[in-house]
Design a protein that fits this description.
single chain, 486 residues, alpha+beta, 5-stranded antiparallel beta sheet, 4-stranded antiparallel beta sheet
């Protein structure tokens, strides 16, 4: 059991931020959650979700099928340790780019949260998008809220079996498509799908031509999608998602979030359309509970801002629909800031938001520049750590180096090796060879210079590697040439 001395009850008639002193709410951490029956609603924010969620779903489903220059547009080939992203091949050496991409994503999320609260959770989070997709299937197969409640209470019969069976069948189909598509980002999706087609051997034995690992992970993510979006739903948002726990620290008094206008809505109570409810001391809230019935996480927004709220706007659409029926002004529940509720004004431009925005734009600019100018060729030069720092060969002084040529391109190349410096350096015993895509070619080379040309013990030189078939592919590495003390 836990005690919360600040959280108001759902039927409280006091302001959410002014809970009665000593008020205690008991929460049984082991109590099973009651099933949530959401009401179907339409409205402005539902349309926004459709326009934002549908392109994301289509992009997720279609992207693995696109090919660029014979390679999938997006393929994370873990076995070969290379990632193909929109025609660019990344290797483990590019891990820092991945780290920066994640940092930029995190700061972008922080920026959006400071401005609009948890709109990521409400409109574009995969858990929310897939959950609402499964709820739509539930509405289609079993009907709206009251019909589903009635269906669950009635004994098992043919109608109940057909409705429940069709719902779970469609859930499994959606989950399987999701699992196949997700694994299609790690293995070519066409080969993956063909592997699920049964084959018949000459002996009559039926088999599936698919790697066991690919089959396991496809079925695993199918099961997890079915479990998360079909059964767990709000439990993931409430108890498993870490973002729900720390997002409050990014809120300020000017952050836009879903709020209930307490001053306008209280005192709640039923009434008939056209009644002069002001004389009875009632507010605009008719206590219809539609805002609770449409909530996918089963909270009452009238109890104040709660960490479970995902800012999906469903309660806003539901309340606006009721206000239209009662011919009251809209906006009893709306996206607003704390300052707006108290003073009627919201500051959109503030130092905290400006700082986040500037940091995100700066990081995106630098990241885009680095990726655009990234060379698919790398070179690393290591001096010989043997007993002798240099060799005397007649009238020449030689140093031995190990040169590693890293071909990070998606094609094979032949590379030429040169040395540049203030002295007439020359390379010995290097023969150009074809380096395969993704290969790190290591070769020992000797660099010689006439002894008479040496003017100091240490001299700077650079190794330059160029691809024969593409002059733009060039990499250089500076090192030191050591000679005798004069």
């Amino acid at each position: 059991m836990t005690q919360d001395k600040t959280a108001p009850g759902k039927n409280s008639e006091t302001a959410p931020d002014k809970a009665k002193e000593g008020e205690i709410r008991y929460v049984n951490l082991y109590e099973a959650e009651s099933k949530i029956y959401t009401r179907k609603i339409s409205g402005f924010y539902q349309k926004i979700r459709r326009y934002t969620g549908l392109p994301l779903i289509l992009g997720f489903l279609l992207l693995p099928w696109f090919y660029i220059d014979g390679q999938p547009a997006v393929l994370f080939d873990l076995a070969a340790r290379k990632f193909h992203i929109l025609g660019i091949t990344f290797w483990p050496q590019d891990f820092m780019l991945l780290a920066w991409a994640l940092i930029i994503s995190a700061f972008s999320l922080f920026t959006v949260t400071v401005l609009l609260g948890r709109v990521w959770c409400g409109f574009t989070c995969p858990q929310t998008v897939w959950t609402l997709m499964f709820i739509s299937v539930e509405h289609f197969c079993e009907g709206d809220r009251n019909k589903r409640i009635k269906l669950d209470r009635q004994p098992w019969n043919l109608e109940k079996v057909l409705r429940k069976g069709s719902k779970h069948f469609l859930w499994i189909v959606i989950a399987f498509i999701t699992g196949v598509t997700f694994i299609g980002y790690f293995t070519p999706i066409r080969e993956l799908l063909l592997g699920f087609v049964p084959h018949r051997a000459a002996s009559g034995f039926v088999y599936f031509d698919i790697h066991p690992a690919a089959a396991f992970w496809t079925l695993f993510f199918t099961g997890m999608t079915y479990l998360n979006a079909g059964w767990m739903r709000e439990q993931v948002c409430k108890y498993m998602c870490p973002y729900a726990r720390f997002q409050a620290v990014m809120y300020d008094k000017d952050t836009l979030a879903v709020h209930y206008d307490f001053n306008r809505g209280e005192k709640r109570g039923p009434r008939k359309p056209g009644d002069d409810y002001k004389k009875s001391g009632l507010g605009d809230c008719i206590d219809c509970s539609w805002c609770v019935q449409v909530c996918p996480v089963n909270i009452d927004i009238r109890d104040g801002l709660q960490y479970e709220c995902i800012n999906c706007g469903l309660c806003v659409d539901a309340c606006n629909a009721v206000m239209d029926k009662m011919t009251y002004p809209r906006g009893l529940i709306r996206f607003a800031s704390e300052d707006e509720l108290q003073t009627g004004k919201t500051r959109f431009f503030r130092p905290r938001l400006f700082g986040y925005t500037f940091a995100v734009l700066a990081m995106i600019s630098v990241f885009a520049y680095v990726v655009a100018n990234r060379s698919p060729l790398g070179v690393d030069v290591i001096r010989d750590r043997g007993a002798r720092l240099y060799r005397v060969m007649g009238d020449e002084i030689q140093n031995v180096y190990t040169v590693k040529i890293n071909n990070m391109d998606s094609r094979n190349h032949i590379y030429d090796l040169e040395v540049e410096g203030d002295l007439p350096f020359e390379i010995r015993n290097y023969r150009p060879r074809e380096v395969e895509a993704g290969e790190v070619f290591s070769v020992p080379v000797r660099v010689a210079v006439p002894r008479a040309q040496l003017s100091s013990e240490k001299n700077t030189l650079s190794f330059v590697v160029r691809a024969r078939d593409d002059a733009s592919m060039e990499a250089r590495e500076a090192t030191v040439f050591i000679g005798p003390t004069r």
